From TrEMBL:
<keyword id="KW-0597">Phosphoprotein</keyword>
<feature type="domain" description="CN hydrolase">
    <location>
        <begin position="71"/>
        <end position="342"/>
    </location>
</feature>
<protein>
    <recommendedName>
        <fullName>Beta-ureidopropionase</fullName>
        <ecNumber>3.5.1.6</ecNumber>
    </recommendedName>
</protein>
<comment type="subunit">
    <text>Homodimer, homotetramer, homooctamer; can also form higher homooligomers.</text>
</comment>
<dbReference type="GO" id="GO:0003837">
    <property type="term" value="F:beta-ureidopropionase activity"/>
</dbReference>
<dbReference type="GO" id="GO:0005737">
    <property type="term" value="C:cytoplasm"/>
</dbReference>
<dbReference type="Pfam" id="PF00795">
    <property type="entry name" value="CN_hydrolase"/>
</dbReference>
<dbReference type="GO" id="GO:0033396">
    <property type="term" value="P:beta-alanine biosynthetic process via 3-ureidopropionate"/>
</dbReference>
<dbReference type="InterPro" id="IPR050345">
    <property type="entry name" value="Aliph_Amidase/BUP"/>
</dbReference>
<comment type="similarity">
    <text>Belongs to the carbon-nitrogen hydrolase superfamily. BUP family.</text>
</comment>
<dbReference type="InterPro" id="IPR036526">
    <property type="entry name" value="C-N_Hydrolase_sf"/>
</dbReference>
<comment type="pathway">
    <text>Amino-acid biosynthesis; beta-alanine biosynthesis.</text>
</comment>
<keyword id="KW-0963">Cytoplasm</keyword>
<comment type="function">
    <text>Catalyzes a late step in pyrimidine degradation. Converts N-carbamoyl-beta-alanine (3-ureidopropanoate) into beta-alanine, ammonia and carbon dioxide. Likewise, converts N-carbamoyl-beta-aminoisobutyrate (3-ureidoisobutyrate) into beta-aminoisobutyrate, ammonia and carbon dioxide.</text>
</comment>
<dbReference type="InterPro" id="IPR003010">
    <property type="entry name" value="C-N_Hydrolase"/>
</dbReference>
<keyword id="KW-0378">Hydrolase</keyword>
Amino acid sequence: MSCEFESLEKSLESHLPEAELAEVKRILFGKETVKLDLPAFALEAASERDFELKAFKFDASQEQLRPPRRTRVGLVQHKIVLPTDAPVLDQINAIHSRVGEIVEVAAMCGVNIICFQETWTMPFAFCTREKEPWTEFAESAEEGNTTRFCQELAKKYNMVIISPILEREELHGKLWNAAVVISNSGNVLGKSRKNHIPRVGDFNESTYYMEGDTGHTVFQTQFGRIAVNICYGRHHPLNWFMFSMNGAEIIFNPSATVGGLSEPMWSIEARNAAIANHCFTCAINRVGTETFKNEFTSGDGRKAHHEFGHFYGSSYVAAPDGSRTPGLSRTRDGLLVVEMDLNLNRQVSDKWSFKMTGRYAEYAEKLTKAVGQDFKPKIIKE
Ligand SMILES: NC(=O)NCCC(=O)O
């Protein structure tokens, strides 16, 4: 059942009376996000290419001194294309071509910044703990084929591309889970390496790579200041916070996560980060169930098995005022196009003032003590 269940929004819409639905949506999702009109040819192309295309916009109030700062983001979720035992290069090329056709539709929709899912060029094979052939999917962030592919697309469509890959740093013999940020000029702006490596469920990523060393880099693009908090980093509120302290206006969260593990948390974490940090957040998850030739165990008493999933998609965008778009499907490839007026960040900040009321200097001092050897927690007992 859980794999076929299309989406929470669809279920609410088909079962609730109209008036009640509006109230349920207001309480659950915040101020309603307005649907964005897209060109008919883009909708047709998406339907022909068999992926879901949804579009929404977040408006801000008209200001007297600043013009609106509208930017359009695109979130891509997709299944792997070939079986996981197909030749490595065939698998990569097939995914390039699938995502390439989605990016083409994003360009028809006027997308300025597009972000792909975590390690988008490969199966999420880290569950297996086998090194071969999975490490062969790793590529140079600066010069790999996938980066070259994205550079062409970025230039062609005048689009910033966030390309999360398995990175190989040849010189030092290191692998990383990293997002390459490619400017709309086609130049590699830089990369952001995954800060927190999971040790939960079948996410055996610590077998392959270490915690990232790029800190909380923010990238100034023509379309806004962006940052990338890769997957498991979304469980760490301070991780979002540090990107925001460096000035991020939009924080992308390319992910790969499965229903049994994280689905009840999914709709909360990125949305909470948008609220707490007065910024936009974009949560992206892959779709599908991935099957591996060799059985692997999950360390939970279950028999060894071949399948990892169900990756439940449900990619969405959250705004600083607590509102959010509906999610993409739990089962289908999709593109979510969202227009946002970045002026909303400062407007909400002026209203709620979390950055001003936060006692950060005090937290920093106390936290330094709390993680020290001689720390005594402040607990008063009778
Ligand atoms: N890819 C990844 O870090 N997944 C961990 C599980 C989760 O964060 O939901």
